[in-house]
Amino acid sequence: MPSRWPSYLVALVLIVAVNFALPRLMPGDPLQAIYGGEMLVEMTPEAYAALERRYGLDRPLAEQFLFYLGRLARGDLGQSYYYGCPVPEVIGGALPWTLLLAGSAFLLSSLLGMWLGIESGWRRDKAGDRGLLWLLGLVNGLPDFFLGILFLLLFGVLLHWFPLSGALTPYAGYTGWALALDAARHLALPLAVLTLTNLTDLFLLTRGSMVTVLGERYVLTARAKGLTDRVVRYRHAGRAALGPVTARLGVRVGRLVTGAVFVEVVFAYPGIGGLLQDALAMRDYPLLQGLFLLITVSVLAANALADYALVRVDPRAGHAY
Q1: In which element (H, E) is residue 91 found?
Q2: Is 170 left (phi over 0), alpha (psi -120 to 50) or beta?
C-alpha cells in the first residue's frame, strides 16, 4: 500500500469539509446559497422550516457536519430543483456517458502516448520523431473546445461523416449491434478530440524518459548481448521509461475531466459537462455541489490508483515517499 494514502485521506476529509462549508460561507443563510433567493421568496414558513430540518440547519455547526456526513454516507446529496428529483439520480443518468467518453479517451490517449513516446525516443532526431514532435506540438497548442469546433465543422458539417450532436439518434428505435454502432458514431468525434488533446503531455514525457533510459548501462549491456531491437526497446528500455510516466497518469485525470466537460458542451453530448452547464445556467446549487464532490473525489481516487500502479511497476518508488 503506498505510504501517501494517509495524505489522500486528509485530502478527502478537506474536500468533504469544503463542500459542507461552501453554502455556509456564502452571503445570506445557507438555504439561500443552496436554493437561491428566488426560490425562498415564494416558500412558506412551514416549507422553510422543513428544509432547515432536512439539512440539519437548526442544529449547532458540529452536529450539522456530522449530520452532513450521515447524509453523504446514505448517498443523499439533496434535491435538484431544476430536474425535480434527487441529485444522485440526476448525476446517475449522465455519468455513464461521461465514463464512456472520458474512460475511452483516457485509455486511448495513455496507450497511444506511451507507444508513440517509446517509438519516437527510439528514433530520436529522425524524420518520424521530428514530424511527431511538430504535429503533436501543434495539437497541444489548441484548446479542447476549439479543436472540437474544427472537427465538428470538418467531419460533421462539411463531410457528413459523423452526427453533429447527442449520444444516440432520437426515436431511431435501434437495438443490439445497430444501437452500439449508432452510439459509436456519436462518440467518434468527441472521443477523437479528447484523445488528441490529452495525448501530447504523455507522449513528451515518455519520449524524454526513453531518451534518458537509452543511455543507461543495462540497456547498452542488453544491446551488447545481441538482443533484438524489439526486446531492448520494450522489455528493457520501454519498461524502465514508463516508471515516471505512470505517476503522471493520475494527474492527467484532472485535465481529462475538465476537457471532457468542454468537449461534451461543444458536441451536446449528454454527460456531466452538459449537466454542469445546465446547473450553472439554472443556478441549481444542490446539483453543482454534487458535481463538485463527484469530480474532486474522482480525481483524488485516480491519483491514489496511479500511486499504487507506480509502486507495482517500480517498487523503488514505494521508498521515495
Answers
A1: helix 87-122
A2: beta
Structure pTM? 0.77
Longest CA span, the chain = 84
For the residues of 230-294, what is the DSSP string, one character each? Answer: HIIIIIIIIHHHHHHHHHHHHHHHHHHHHHHHHHHHHTT-TTHHHHHHHHHHHT-HHHHHHHHHH
Per-residue pLDDT of the chain (321 residues; tens, 9 = 90+): 556 677 888 888 888 888 877 766 766 666 666 666 666 666 777 777 777 777 666 777 788 788 888 888 888 887 787 787 888 999 998 999 999 998 999 899 989 999 999 999 888 888 888 888 888 888 877 888 888 889 999 998 899 899 988 888 888 778 889 999 999 999 999 999 999 988 888 888 888 888 888 888 888 888 788 788 888 888 888 888 887 777 677 667 777 877 888 888 889 898 888 888 888 777 677 788 888 888 888 888 877 777 777 666 666 555 555
Q: Which residues contact 289 (CB under 8 A, 6 or more apart)?
A: 19, 22, 23, 34, 77, 78, 87
Grid cell of 160 as nine digits: 457528413
